[in-house]
Amino acid sequence: MSPRYFMPILALLGLCFQLSTVQAQTLKPGFDKEEYIELLKAYAGWRNPAYNDGIAPTDKYRSVYKSPEMGLENRWELLHSQEDSVAVISLRGTTRDPNSWLANVYAAMVPAKGQLKLTKDYTFNYRLSANPKAAVHVGWLVSTGFLVRDILPQIDASYKAGTKDFLILGHSQGGAIAYLLTSHLLSLQQDGLLPADLRFKTYCSAAPKPGNLYYAYEFENATAGGWAFNIVNAADWVPETPVSIQTMGDFNQTNPFTNAKAGIKRQKFPKNLALTHVYKQLTKPTQKAQRKYQKYLGNIVSKFTRKQLKEFEEPVYYESNHYVRTGDIIVLMPDEKYYALYPDSKERVFVHHMLQPYLYLAERLK
């Protein structure tokens, strides 16, 4: 065949392939109010009547798989859309079980790249960031490690059945895990261990802070363009946690503080003594607080963790507690009508954290 006839045929085939790919992918970037509301309705299926009271069940998604409990009382659910070829990975949040709370209070940081020895037969290798200064919450990483081993076969089966679009949803603890799961899946995709044409879109609802600033930078870069959101009720205290402590070691390498001590030493006596005293007064309290947090929420809590996970090996922690808000943040802003329905309460400390207030505010987003 003459090249002048062959080339137009190739171009036509390429166009057909592009069109089929576009048609196959139905997820769109950007925050979608109705998409989020429908996901909250689907998520309500996890809860007992006290939690999902007044929330209508989803008409769009049907459950096709619910995992057994694993790790620190973690579970996830796979749902398929009845309207298009989209699947949902729904990550359960904290339950009333003390083991579930262990995942939250095990709040030391570990490097965002490394491995966790979860059982004698299973080492979770992960790369959530290429930056050696990036670090994440160890408890939620343990949960992610157990869950992902069960999630990957279901993604593979769904993909082989023709599903390439996945919504990842978590509320509360589930939202924190959703960050780490998204990062892990994207890294597997980069390494060629997941198909390149898989598309993930993530909604971290009422999520606490998953890691430090350098992890946040990488997560936000990897999901830029409208592929991940952190939805926060401005009255909810949970997204303000874990407690964040910033020390001099948390700054970028180039900063005006690194050589401060050397600059102080060059000052004349007694000015150098006065400045040294001030410098120590400003820096030592946060350093001391960080060490205490790592001791109690790392070393000590790990002992309780190992009582539940007998073969878990305590990792080496990253010496930081600088947790930050992460992702493209969608703020649900309460007003007087909201507070009339959901007043502040010293007894009901989760009043603003439940699905009902989030759904109420989401439905009123403009």
From TrEMBL:
Q: Which SUPFAM superfamilies match?
A: alpha/beta-Hydrolases
* Record flagged with keyword Membrane: no
Sorted alphabetically, the Gene Ontology BP terms of this entry are: lipid metabolic process
Q: Where is the signal peptide?
A: 1-24
- Keywords on record: Signal
Q: Name one Pfam family in it.
A: Lipase_3
Is the keyword Signal assigned to this protein?
Answer: yes
The Fungal lipase-type domain extends over 88-243
Name under which the protein is recorded: Lipase (Class 3)
Its source organism is Pontibacter ummariensis
